[in-house]
TrEMBL record:
<keyword id="KW-0547">Nucleotide-binding</keyword>
<keyword id="KW-0067">ATP-binding</keyword>
<dbReference type="Pfam" id="PF00512">
    <property type="entry name" value="HisKA"/>
</dbReference>
<keyword id="KW-1133">Transmembrane helix</keyword>
<dbReference type="InterPro" id="IPR013655">
    <property type="entry name" value="PAS_fold_3"/>
</dbReference>
<dbReference type="InterPro" id="IPR004358">
    <property type="entry name" value="Sig_transdc_His_kin-like_C"/>
</dbReference>
<dbReference type="InterPro" id="IPR003661">
    <property type="entry name" value="HisK_dim/P_dom"/>
</dbReference>
<feature type="domain" description="Histidine kinase">
    <location>
        <begin position="572"/>
        <end position="795"/>
    </location>
</feature>
<feature type="domain" description="PAS">
    <location>
        <begin position="312"/>
        <end position="382"/>
    </location>
</feature>
<keyword id="KW-0597">Phosphoprotein</keyword>
<dbReference type="InterPro" id="IPR005467">
    <property type="entry name" value="His_kinase_dom"/>
</dbReference>
<feature type="domain" description="PAS">
    <location>
        <begin position="438"/>
        <end position="508"/>
    </location>
</feature>
<dbReference type="InterPro" id="IPR001610">
    <property type="entry name" value="PAC"/>
</dbReference>
<dbReference type="InterPro" id="IPR013767">
    <property type="entry name" value="PAS_fold"/>
</dbReference>
<dbReference type="Pfam" id="PF08447">
    <property type="entry name" value="PAS_3"/>
</dbReference>
<feature type="domain" description="PAC">
    <location>
        <begin position="385"/>
        <end position="437"/>
    </location>
</feature>
<feature type="transmembrane region" description="Helical">
    <location>
        <begin position="91"/>
        <end position="110"/>
    </location>
</feature>
């Protein structure tokens, strides 16, 4: 495996940066202190002899000034070279200071008397050179002061714009400044104070020298305080120390020109100028040596890299040719320049056929603009990843590919083309599409399933819950997700559920079992579960089918079977008992004639005859319940029969009970035994009287009714069709809910002993069933009872005015309806019917739940509520409270009682809408629209 060897191209130490930014090390400080110490010792030794006159040597001045100027110019050039890279304003000022000292030294030498002319060149006067010396020695400390204030660890504030312009400005500034200064100290030297008279210093000279010396000292202190110190800072401080010794020896402690102090001070000045230059030159030599070493190592690196990249190029070529993906290179105008073997296999063209031709060779016509767009993006230095598109095989078939496109560059970095990697995803895309359809189908099944689908982890925590949970358990999916199933399963079914989960994890798939879950309102819901375990994803999958309808249907079927069984039993008993009674009643007459002359025996025969008559009536009732009594049906007008029954009931029921007939117009005729129907109404009225010992209201009502398939599905003994309803409703004490299922059983009664046989309602039940009808009872303790008889409509009649509106198309809507019903089975039926009409349906089991929903959802348009409900608030009170909270909310009531019975009970105000149970879909649709439009 090839690897690139790393060659160290750095210098051996970390001092290859610029001295103006390189932090000073302890060795720098030690060397500087040593030089300052030696200078101080020499200065101390020279001070006592500073005024000693020496031989005048003008050539010394010329040599000294020349060396000083050259040294300062070289130093300035080296510093300016650093400035051109670092762009430091402080470094530019320091370089300018050295240029200034060089220019001042040259001007001072030209004007010095006795060097080039007896009195000096440039029109120099007696005070010219001494003033030039003072200006020169005060100017450089000023530049050092400015450098010290502007510098920082990175070389100071940066200059914007070209550095060449700043350098030119600095040079020209120094020249102009020197010209102005030279003009002042030559042409205008008479205006300046006298500093030197007869070769000796004046008092003014002492003041000026003291000021110049103070500037140098201030520059030294500034450099010391402006930390951190760089290498240049350290050697500038050494320079300023030497500068102080220079001024002290040559202008303070000496006496006149050409004494020991004059020569020693200038020697100090020359050394001061050389310190920074020497450090810069030494550093340059070191850098040059490092550069030569670096060049050597770079050459070695270059040779190694040529060999390395040559091998890599060969390796890459092998990789390209052996790649399973097509690798294609093309120029920016779309000409193919590279075509590997995988491209030959993918597109069917050989390299000879493809190279040199346009990429349109494999691009469909409708995709060529796209291909040109890709090249345009590549030319803009953009890389393209995972671009799915279609290409064409040589044989014309389309190929789904994914492209990764990158810019192809020349040696100088210019983009000259594109490199494409094409991967065939035809089969992968087909598989993805198949998977997408499968996932979509599964999601559709999950979302629309009427069964409850649950997904849990291995610990029984819900991961997914199907939306059907709202209809089955009353919860929203988010109410269960993240929670443990233990919170929802009936405690008695937990162990069985855990056993089934363990069995599923052992590989026993599709386990079927029953378990009860708690509904949102607290009641139990029985579900039949099919469970499975997926080992790859560590998930349990359950499908639960709601057994509520099935159990209700089974209960109704059991009730029907029970009633049929009892009917068969009672029918058989009544038949045999009638045979016995026939013998008794037949022989009692013979016996009665035989003992007519014996009063005491005649009374006994009369008692036996009365008992036989009572037995005959009992068997008649039993045969009616068993649906084996002889009926004489004929087509009758139920309104006329009910009115006749009402007349007969007035004296029977008494004045404390008000009878209110409420008869519908155009009531349909029905085929029924009128005598038996009258007896049934009489029995129901007598039961109602017994339930109202303190008086009340008895409502006799007729109505044309259509019982639809939905109602028939909830009552297995009902056939959908047209019926005439006869309702007998009272305002009595009502029947407890626990007894409602037994009221039609023969000999069952809640009356006291001797107050009834318990055959009244069972006789009515048998008569209605034998007539092909249906009977239902609605009752609430403390509110009353309503018994509804549904008799089939007699055929062969024309449509009445009532029927005609029932045949118009059913109209629905898209409003939101809140359904409040305490019976879970009825509530589910109503919700289904309302949704089938297009409405959005919400549901609640009682008034408290309904108010929570009303407060949470401001878009509810209609409250559809049962009137009689358990709890602290009935339907009417719920409607009043809902209207108080939402004044615009419409209300529609429903009840098992007749509308008129409810009105006269005082439950509703006049004009309030009520839909009496049961009702067909057309009636529901009509009343919903009426209520919403009210």
């Amino acid at each position: 495996m090839l690897s690139l060897r790393e060659v160290n191209v750095h210098a051996r130490n970390d001092r290859s940066t610029f001295l103006s930014t390189l932090p000073a090390m302890q060795s720098d400080r030690t060397a500087a202190l040593a030089i300052v110490g030696i200078s101080a010792i020499l200065f101390a030794l020279a001070v006592p002899f500073a005024g000693t006159p020496l031989v005048q040597m003008p050539a010394f001045v010329a040599s000294y000034q020349s060396a000083l100027a050259v040294s300062d110019i070289i130093t300035a050039v080296l510093l300016l070279s650093q400035f051109s890279v670092l762009r430091s304003r402080a470094l530019l000022l320091l370089s300018t200071g050295y240029l200034f000292t060089a220019a001042a030294a040259v001007t001072h030498a030209l004007t010095f008397p006795g060097l080039f002319a007896p009195t000096g060149l440039l029109g120099a006067g007696t005070q010219t050179t001494v003033w030039l010396y003072m200006i020169w020695h005060s100017g450089f400390p000023l530049f050092v002061l400015a450098y010290g204030w502007l510098k920082d660890g990175n070389g100071g504030n940066k200059i914007e714009g070209p550095t060449q312009r700043s350098i030119v400005v600095a040079v020209l500034g120094v020249i102009v400044a020197m010209i102005v200064i030279g003009w002042i100290v030559t042409a205008r030297h008479d205006l300046l104070p006298v500093l030197l008279r007869d070769g000796r210093y004046t008092t003014a000279m002492i003041g000026v020298v003291s000021f110049v010396w103070s500037l140098s000292f201030a520059a030294l202190i500034t450099l010391w305080l402006r930390r951190p110190h760089t290498v240049i800072d350290i050697w500038l401080m050494v320079t300023m120390c030497a500068w102080l010794f220079d001024i002290a020896l040559s202008a303070i402690v000496n006496v006149a020109r050409y004494d020991l102090g004059f020569y020693a001070g200038r020697i100090y000045g020359l050394f001061a100028a050389s310190f920074v230059l020497a450090v810069l030159l030494i550093e340059n030599v070191r850098l040059q040596a490092s550069t030569m070493g670096l060049v050597g190592r770079l050459r070695e690196q270059s040779a190694f890299e040529r060999d390395y990249y040559g091998k890599r190029l060969a390796l890459y070529g092998a990789v390209v040719e052996s790649s399973n993906d097509a690798i294609i290179t093309e120029s920016l105008d779309g000409r193919i320049t590279g075509w590997n073997r995988a491209a030959e296999r993918l597109f069917g063209y050989s390299a000879n056929e493809a190279i040199g031709r346009s990429i349109d060779l494999v691009v469909p016509e409708d995709r060529r603009a796209e291909a040109r767009g890709l090249l345009n993006r590549i030319s803009s230095n953009e890389s393209i990843a995972q671009h799915e598109t279609v290409r064409i095989h040589k044989d014309g078939r389309p190929i789904d590919v994914v492209l990764n496109v990158s810019p192809l560059r020349s040696d100088n970095g210019e983009i000259i083309g594109a490199s494409k990697i094409a991967h065939d995803i035809t089969e992968e895309k087909q598989a993805r599409e198949k998977l997408r359809r499968e996932i979509e189908e599964r999601e559709r099944i999950f979302e629309t399933s009427q069964d409850l689908i649950l997904v849990t982890d291995g610990y029984g925590n819900f991961i997914q819950v199907s939306p059907s949970v709202k209809d089955i358990l009353g919860f929203n999916p988010e109410d269960m997700i993240g929670h443990s199933a233990i919170e929802f399963i009936h405690p008695d079914d937990l162990d069985r559920t855990r056993e089934e989960m363990r069995a599923a994890r052992r590989g026993q798939t599709k386990r079927s079992f029953e378990a009860r879950y708690y509904h949102y309102d607290g009641h139990e819901v029985s579900l039949n579960w099919v469970g499975n375990w997926s080992e790859p994803v560590k998930r349990h999958f359950f499908i639960g089918r709601d057994l509520t309808d099935k159990q209700a249907a089974e209960a109704q079927l059991r009730q029907v079977q029970k009633m049929d069984s009892i009917g068969q039993l009672t029918g058989g008993v009544a038949h045999d008992f009638n045979n016995v009674l026939t013998v008794i009643t037949g022989t009692i007459g013979i016996l009665s004639d035989a003992v007519a002359d014996r009063p005491e025996l005649a009374a006994i025969t009369k008692l036996i005859d009365d008992a036989a008559e009572r037995g005959a009536q009992l068997t008649k009732h039993l045969l009616a319940f068993a649906r084996k009594q002889p009926l004489q049906p004929r087509e009758i007008d139920v309104n006329a029969l009910v009115l006749e029954a009402a007349k007969l009931l007035h004296p029977t029921l008494g004045e404390q009970i008000t009878i209110m007939p409420q008869l519908t117009e155009d009531a349909w005729p029905t085929l029924v035994d009128p005598g038996q129907l009258s007896t049934a109404i009489l029995n129901l009225a007598l039961n109602a009287r017994d339930a109202m010992p303190d008086g009340g209201t008895l409502v006799l009502e007729t109505r044309n009714i259509f019982l639809d398939d939905g109602y028939a599905s909830m009552n297995p003994d009902v056939v959908a069709g047209n019926y005439v309803m006869i309702a007998v409703s009272d305002t009595g004490s009502g029947i407890p809910a626990a007894l409602l299922e037994r009221v039609f059983d023969p000999f069952f009664t809640t009356k006291e002993v001797g107050k009834g046989t318990g055959l009244g309602l069972s006789m009515v039940f048998g008569f209605v069933k034998q007539s092909g009808g249906h009977i239902n009872i609605y009752s609430e303790e403390g509110h009353g009872t309503s018994v509804k008889i549904y008799l089939p409509r007699s055929t062969g009649m024309q449509e009445t005015e009532y029927e005609q509106p029932q045949n118009v198309p059913i109209t629905g809507g898209n409003e939101k309806v809140l359904i409040v019903e305490d019976d879970a089975l009825v509530r589910q039926y109503v919700v289904t019917q309302v949704k089938s009409l297009g409405y959005a349906a919400l549901e609640a089991a009682n008034a408290a739940e309904a108010l929570v929903i009303i407060d949470a959802d401001k878009d509810i348009d209609l409250l559809f509520t049962d009137i009689i409900m358990p709890g602290n608030m009935n339907g009417r009170q719920l409607a009043d409270e809902a209207t108080r909270r939402r004044p615009q909310l419409k209300t529609l009531f429903t009840s098992g009682y007749t509308e008129n019975a409810i009105v006269h009970h005082g439950r509703l105000d006049s004009g309030v809408l009520l839909l009496a149970k049961p009702y067909r879909k057309s009636e529901l649709a009509k009343m919903l629209r009426t209520a919403l439009a009210s």
